[in-house]
Design brief:
The protein is mostly helical. The protein has one domain. Helices cover 87% and strands 0% of the residues. The chain is built from two helices and no strands. Helix 1 packs antiparallel against helix 2. The N and C termini lie far apart (70 Å).
Length: 111
Amino acid sequence: MAQERGAKARDADLGDAAQDAWQAVVDYAKQETIEPLRGLGRFIGRGTAGSALIAIGCVLLAVALLRALQTETGSTFTGNLSWIPYLITLAAAAGVAGLAVWAIVRNGKES
């Protein structure tokens, strides 16, 4: 009878140890997979939102430059020269895009 109780106690201890080991494995898996993925999701979400806001700002600045060139230069860009403000705005936007690409490439080489 005493041997049976001792065997049952050992089996219970072994079951508790197995359950504790399984719980440790599950907790570790969650810590090493789910939490980094949540952080990555937040990073991507904030990056996407920031990129969208910067893109909207750049478009608004380009439109503002175009309108300023069309209205504030008097009769300079009238008649056959009415296309020049569009060319200037396109060149300015291409310059900003070029600077952004240059900065990305430069930072990529430093890594």
